[in-house]
Each structure stands twice: as C-alpha cells, then as structure tokens.
Amino acid sequence: MSNRKSLSELPHRYSKMKRQENYYHSVNAQHFDEFEMKFQVGQKINDKTELDKWLTERYALLQDTQNSINEFEVHHIEWPTYRVDLNEIRIEYPRFDKLLNNLPNLTHYSTGVQVIAWDKRKNKKLAVTKSGNSAFRDATVYS
C-alpha cells in the first residue's frame, strides 16, 4: 500500500471491511465513516445507456494534491456491469453529509477489471480560488 500511495499520491485510508455473498460492510474509525449494504445481483447489462457508460468508463485519473494536480493515463477493458437490487443500505460519511444525503438514483454491480495507470504528469498549481478549487497551468511538469 505505501508504494502505491507514494507513486500516485492517492488518499488511501485504512478501513476495516467485511464482504460476504450479497453483503458488504466498511468502517473507517479514524474518520467515523461507515458503509453497509445488503444486495442482490441481477442480470448483466448488455445494452448500456450513455449514462451507464459515462458512470463506469474512465480512461483518465486526476488527483488534486497540495501542490499539484496529477494526471494519469488509464487503460482497462469495458467494465462488466449488472443490475443490482439494494435490500438495505446505510451510508454514514460525516465529511460528505451534504453530498451523500439520499439513496442512490442508479446502481450498478461489477465483478471488476484489471486497470493499468501510467504516465503520471504533475501540473503545478498556480493558486487556490476562494471556492477551494485550484488553478493549474498548461505546462506539464514531469516527475
């Protein structure tokens, strides 16, 4: 984990996880985060809508760090997605209460894919705006 974090600077946080058939539970005691759901996987989605594709297919990764915005190229096969029925769901992430305050409007389940990320590019920040968003210059700084 430490090598992955040092290479990417992604904010990995330890959480205690439990996964069983049709059940998932995750607790991060440090941030008081908890996620729990009971679910039933349905049929494979063969005819994905544009929204399905937009939600599941990402070929770039951006990471906002203290001094830069890092970009990575990403490659993977198309995610196999399935319909999923949520029997129970509990989402408690105090830091994101304003964002995660309703049940999901759309859900997907996937068995996963192998993902390759490469070509890290660091774009140095020029300033941080009042809204907390950062500006970064066009020129890429390679590390």
Task: Note the main attributes of this structure.
five-stranded antiparallel sheet, single chain, disordered C terminus, disordered N terminus, 143 residues, mainly beta
Protein model, in words:
There is one protein chain. With 143 residues, the chain is mainly beta. It has one domain. Helix content is 10%, strand content 48%. The chain has two helices and ten strands, in the order αβββαβββββββ. The strands form two sheets. A five-stranded antiparallel sheet has the order 1-2-3-6-7, with no helix packed on it. A hairpin with a 5-residue loop joins strand 8 and strand 9. 1% of the residues are buried.
Helix and strand layout, with pairings?
Blueprint: H1 2-8, E1 16-20, E2 23-28, E3 33-44, H2 50-56, E4 60-64, E5 68-75, E6 81-92, E7 109-110, E8 116-128, E9 134-136, E10 141-142
Antiparallel strand pairs: 1-2, 2-3, 3-6, 4-5, 5-8, 6-7, 8-9, 8-10
Q: How would you briefly describe this protein structure?
A:
With 143 residues, this protein is mainly beta.
> What radius of gyration results from the CA coordinates?
18 Å
Mean pLDDT: 83
| Approximate helicity band | under 10%
* Pattern of helices and strands: HEEEHEEEEEEE
Structural class comes to: mainly beta
Please state roughly what percent of the residues sit in beta strands, choosing from under 5%, 5-15%, 15-25%, 25-35%, 35-45% or over 45%: over 45%
How large is the count of helical segments?
2
